Amino acid sequence: MIGWLQRFFSPGAITMFTRCLLTLVLLLVLAAPPVPAVDRSETPSTPAATGAPVTLNGTPLFYVREKVLSYPPTERARLISARLEKLLHAPQVDAATITTTDSDASTDIVAGDLVIMSVTDRDARGEGTTRQELARRFRDRIVAAIVAYRDEYSSRSLLEGSAYAALATLVLVAALLFLKKLFPLLHNRLQSWKGTKIRSLRVQSLEIVNAERIVSLLASLLRGGRLVITLTLFYFYIPLVFSFFPQTQGFAAQLFGHLISPLRSIGHAIGAYLPNIFFILVILLVTHYVIKLIRFVFAEIGKGTITIPGFYQDWAEPTFKIVRFLVLAFAAVVVFPYLPGSNSPAFKGISIFLGVLFSLGSTSAVANIVAGVILTYTRGFKTGDRVKIAETVGDVVEKTLLVTRIRTIKNVDVTIPNSMVISSHVVNYSSSADAYGLILHTSVTIGYDTPWRTIHQLLVEAAKRTEHILELPAPFVLQTALNDFYVTYELNAYTDQPHKMMAIYSALHQQIQDRFNEAGVEIMSPHYSQLRDGNSTTIPESYRPPGYVAPSIRISRPGEAAPTE
After folding, report:
1. What is the model's pTM?
2. Can you tell me where the transmembrane regions are (predicted)?
3. pLDDT tens, 289-305?
4. What distance lies between CA 381 and its chain's CA centroid?
5. Residue 301 is part of which domain span?
6. Do 128 and 189 have their domain in common?
7. Is-cis flag, bond preceding 473, omega within 30?
């Protein structure tokens, strides 16, 4: 390990780390609480150790087995323990003053005026000794326990515990500083190995995992390792500091128990659950590869490599999503009974609650999904088509099971719920444009004084001059109305560029104006038809013949021929 560390650190850093480790080990050895000697003759495991224990600060000192007067052994032990606790917290009473006194019926253990307990002949016969000897034995244990307790809670003991705690804190800080220096160096070294010692995993020319991904994974493992090491240091540091002080020694054991018990329970639960985990992993693995196979099949259908009569290529992607959802739902149904706590009332209650929430809150979502499926398989439009849905005209940029997104000619994205789409009429300008051509139409109104054949010719010529208008099928004109003062002519022209229809309309209107002006035909409305006599023509000056003069006002009497110019 030292040789490995020398590749990353200087000798001084290694020496510092080694000293920290040695200090921590020495601290653990010195700070370990002494193991008290056990009197085998008084342990409950031996046959003689029957009766009620007399305790001091929770530690059994000896046992009483005989009844005295009306007090059974358990009541005697409780009263003696209470007197000892009172004596323990009376610093004015010196433990050396505890002595024994004889009487005719018993030998008493006393501390000044306080009688701690009385030892009878029956107690002595049960222990196989004399009354005086048994009383001295009990007195020695009481004195030793009181002296040990007071020594343990003395100022010197607290100072020693504080010193050990400070030393442990210094070791912890040194270890954390070392980790703070170690892991950035390891991270930088990993980054420097990218492309050299750490290379992409390849199978021939196929790259499975690139070097960047591997380095990122190792960096994540380093961060996780640093966190685990830091938590481990605190895991040992906190109970260790508690163990240095007699007031908190019990907390150390409790803390260790609280930390280890959950881990032990989790370990047992994981061990018992391993068969179910393997079953779930197998189901997930099979589901993963089934979905990959399904994705491959529908991808080939979408490319046209695989053809199924009656199944269109644009159905491949939405059908794959539906089939994938069904496969995942089936896998969830199979896995559900093997999930931890799936049979518990809490799990069932949560499942029912979530089901009710989903049912109440997903009504519109389900309606949109059903509408999306219907729109997919009725093939009303596909992504990229120029459509008009209600009052919105634009190109379809996205189709999902929930919504349809349209980008208008002004580059505004409009999101329409599928339930609204299916309830509205949809105009598709692109569906037949490639096969038959989209017919663009516009109308002009011309007076009766211009021959209709001339109008037809001018309109067709204007259409043929317009970019993106097809020559075949040829443009044609329809006379849609014979009005009071003019005739309505409708020009119809084919195009295979529905996405440019607005630009084509603009260019077509420009060509109509130019062609009519070149031919000297006015596009006029009836609003000024009665004021035409004596006014200039509406044709722009650039299209008028040279020397054009507006005609004068002509007045004729009834029955006379109109004057000629």
Report:
1. 0.45
2. 161-179, 227-245, 265-286, 322-340, 352-378
3. 999 999 999 999 888 88
4. 35
5. 254-361
6. no
7. yes
